[in-house]
Batch of 3 targets.
Target 1
Amino acid sequence: MTTESPVSPERTAGSLRCLGLGITLGSQLTILAREQLAAADVVFFHSNSHYLTGFLQQINPNLVDLQPFYQPGQPRCDSYQAMLDAVIAAVTAGKNVVWACYGHPGIASWPPHQAIRQLKALGYRAKMEAGIGADACLYADLGIDPMAEGCQQFEASQFLFYQHTVDVSAYLLLWQVAIAGDFSLTKLASDSHFIDILVQHLQQWYPPDHQVILYEAADLPIWQYRSETVTLATLPQATLNQITTLVIPPLRPKSINHKMLDQLGVPADHPLRQTRLP
């Protein structure tokens, strides 16, 4: 006879919805997200501009700005924990809470995931709603289909901290490149010394003159996205902001796996038998 672990009954009071506001203010907010914002008892958000604050106030005036939780010189993990504690406290006090996040709430954002896990374990309703993230904007703005050439992506510091194998026939995206190598979790600005280390690391796979793209999505509908092409070697001298993504195009075409094509029975005249896909 087996016994199942007890599961906490779902509480009727207090809930959390972590939702994405999209990247471009207003134009990428879904109908569902707007409805949930309007219905919330309290909305936690990160005030990265006064435009965002004004926009959200039109939907729901019950706002709590999490931006002050960031303190100069304080590790970001401490700031994230303080945000997490504030949100959980509001839910356990019986409020229906929305945590409104830039872009997609679950991308490059540990606290919402953790809040949902903890609240579910306590028996509260907690859910994440998808949002339009910077990756979706990047594919649209730069005209990249990640399914066509293939696409690898890493947070830039994680790319340095851990061993990875790069497929140079695919795109390589490095997010938060400005703070690549920041093991202290305190830096908010680019460090040219660390960027130089990143460039040296990338030169295992790419030549110094390989053309790379610095990409930034547009925060407002009236702004243009940034797409600046530089060589890999000049990356340490480039302007890198908190939202800059390094896009490294393929170095060479894909190589056909002829042994696999034989195993799959691909005919000799099939386009796959050519040197690369049409």
Target 2
Amino acid sequence: MKLRYVGPKPLISYTGIEFDNNKEDKYVYLNIVIQLIKALRDENLRGNTYKYEATTKRLSDDELFNELKKYCKNINELIEEENHSIEDEIEHNLKRAHDSEVLTDELKEVLHNNIEIMHDYLIQRSINKAVYYCVIEDLADIISKTHIEYIVVPLYAKFTHVLHSVQGVLLNYKNPIDTKLEIYKDGDQVYSKLKVVKLLS
């Protein structure tokens, strides 16, 4: 299965299928993560601050996958594992629908069909999420091993989401790394700034 955008988190029930627009598909963040990784791995990077340019060229799906393979070394195995894992989860949910003592046979069938309709969607979303966290961990690893003290990105929700994810990974290290996410203005532009504070004792 290839990586591709599908959409926000589906909410599947016997009454229908809705979508939680607050739970976006992780695919939309992959371009940003890859651009940050590439920049921070650049041997010519100078100083202790990296500023992401909003005009950075987006990668095509094929270019993105080729870059992801560099930084998520086990990407094919990860996709395969995630595929099996979500298949098991879908089967479990289908069985729960079938075994429900609350729903009528008609509603059980509706729920079963709704889950089946979203089968490929659920698998793709799960794979996108697994790959996202694989490269987020790589990005966090770079930050932990380099002299970078600040990462500055435009104040857009997608960019800030990526920095929040990095914060979570760094804080969960065996020797946690503390960070602060700040907002500041430079002229007419507003930015999010991730400040790598210190190693926590």
Target 3
Amino acid sequence: MQIQTQHTLFVCTTCASVWKDGKRVGESGGEKLFQKLTQLHQDWQLHEEFSLQAVECMSACNRACVVSFAAGGKYTYLFGDLSPDSSGDKIATVLECATKYYNHPQGLLPWAERPEALKKGILARIPALAVPTTQANRPSVGVTV
């Protein structure tokens, strides 16, 4: 039996915030982007396999707005410079790229295959963590756990 890996699209909701006296004022650009992606996500063919999760600050403030694709055993990608005021078609390119990520076994997203907005906005490609295997599949190294 093969276990399906859960995929996640993280969206920074503090991106492009307006601050006054140390408090956020109004709706941030990240919140707007998250709302638009939430609407598109509902009708996306991978909505059950790819969760959408709001995140408070992804520490890429100078490249707002920011999203990330992550899944166990796959590369993690971080993209910035996404405009929350873009049309629905431009925002949909995030899900288009997420589909490519989902379909590749290691989550590789070659530059030439990414939508234009995500070619220019790449901030990081982080190597995959090893996916834990069951005890029966682990090689014996003389250590009892």
